[in-house]
Automatic annotation (TrEMBL):
It is a multi-pass membrane protein. The chain crosses the membrane at residues 80-104, 116-135, 155-186, 198-218, 258-279, 286-304, 310-326, 338-356. It comes from the Bacteria. Pathway: Glycolipid biosynthesis; glycosylphosphatidylinositol-anchor biosynthesis. This is Integral membrane protein. It is found in: Endoplasmic reticulum membrane. It comes from Streptomyces sp. 900105245. Keywords: Endoplasmic reticulum, Glycosyltransferase, GPI-anchor biosynthesis, Membrane, Transferase, Transmembrane, Transmembrane helix.
């Protein structure tokens, strides 16, 4: 935990220094950048805001309710305002997520791998989001501990935490998919001779995501399709990768923003890492969870440059790298030190660039 907090504090300091040099206030950058404005607005005023965007009208119903609800609770219980409450929720969730990621890594491969797994997660190119008023830390916190509960056989906890993850972000259903897949595999392996707690956990897992999608549908007059229409107006839909391929073509053939080719590289690396996850036979719930997140990123259209952020909760993809780095550290400590220093430099500089100077939505 100390290692994770240290690397994120340094990253936040770098962002603050770059922001100051660019004439931007650090708290504004951290608490009111892009989607943060929408979430804090929901926390203060509730749902109902509309905005004209790209010749259509978009709604704040596209943003899931758990994070705004937590921010509202903090503002009610403390003297903090919206930005302070939003950052407190995000920073706390990031710390809880780091502890959960360590628990998963340590259970599978020992304490060293768990520690390095947290370090790598905290140094990803888009890890700056972990210091901002965004929802990825909240999703990752519930996801990590839900997956840990599956690995330890605590099915009711796994389902409950998965339901909470489903209320945090649209791609939070990946946690429910992992819990249901693991429960089904366990029941099949034991020929149905399982505790009722397994079925209870599997039934609880998708409730959060399903409840919000149906609520938005009922509010918009189309119970099954209303939420997806809201997302379509934002430009987000699942089109089997057609939109992503078009963005790749445009990035390769025409001059684009710097974030676009970097996004392409990050997604490509994620695909390679997932292949390694499958080859190393990572436990089913972790491979299903990261696979669903990767499928949403590849097969979904929308804000192409935001895809690395959508992959931030997919920490199981880092397991092969964590194991390799631990082996390197034991054989050649200085080589591992250089690798970590390079990752830190890349993550800090690129994260500051995205928030301060990048014009593409984070």
């Amino acid at each position: 935990m100390g290692l994770f907090l240290g690397v994120r504090l340094v990253g936040t300091l770098v962002l603050a220094l770059v922001g100051h040099a660019g004439g931007r206030h650090p708290l504004t950058l951290l608490g009111r950048s892009w989607d943060s404005v929408w979430y804090l607005g929901i926390a203060v005023h509730g749902y109902g805001r509309l905005l004209h965007l790209r010749a259509t009208v978009v709604s704040d119903l596209a943003f899931f309710p758990l994070y705004p609800a937590l921010v509202r609770a903090v503002t009610a219980l403390t003297p903090l305002g919206g930005i302070g409450a939003g950052l407190l929720v995000s920073w706390t969730a990031a710390a809880v997520a780091a502890a959960g990621i360590y628990a998963v890594g340590a259970r599978l491969h020992g304490r060293a791998v768990g520690t390095v797994l947290v370090l790598l997660w905290g140094l990803l190119p888009h890890s700056v989001v972990l210091s901002m008023a965004y929802t990825e830390p909240v999703l990752t916190a519930f996801a990590a501990w839900s997956l840990y509960a599956v690995l330890t056989g605590n099915w009711v906890w796994a389902g409950t935490l998965a339901a909470c993850a489903g209320l945090a972000r649209p791609n939070g259903f990946a946690v429910a998919a992992a819990v249901v897949a693991a429960a089904g595999a366990t029941a099949w392996r034991r020929r149905g001779r399982v505790s009722h707690r397994l079925w209870t956990g599997a039934a609880l897992a998708p409730l959060g995501w399903t409840a919000y999608v149906l609520w938005v549908g009922l509010r918009s007059g189309d119970p099954l399709g209303g939420y997806f229409e809201v997302q379509r107006r934002w430009g987000s839909r699942f089109d089997l990768g057609e939109g992503s391929l078009d963005m790749v073509r445009r990035s390769l053939l025409h001059a684009t923003k710097f974030a676009f080719p970097v996004t392409l590289v990050i997604v490509a690396v994620a695909v390679v890492l997932y292949a390694l996850v499958l080859l190393e036979r990572v436990p089913l719930p972790l491979s299903v969870y990261s696979g669903v997140l990767l499928l949403v990123v590849i097969g979904g259209s929308g804000f192409f440059e935001s895809k690395p952020r959508f992959l931030l909760p997919a920490f199981p993809l880092l397991l092969p790298l964590a194991r390799a780095l631990v082996r390197t550290a034991r054989a050649r400590p200085w080589h591992a030190t250089v690798v970590v220093a390079a990752l830190a430099g890349l993550g800090y500089v690129y994260g500051a660039y995205l928030v301060v100077f990048g014009r593409a939505p984070l």
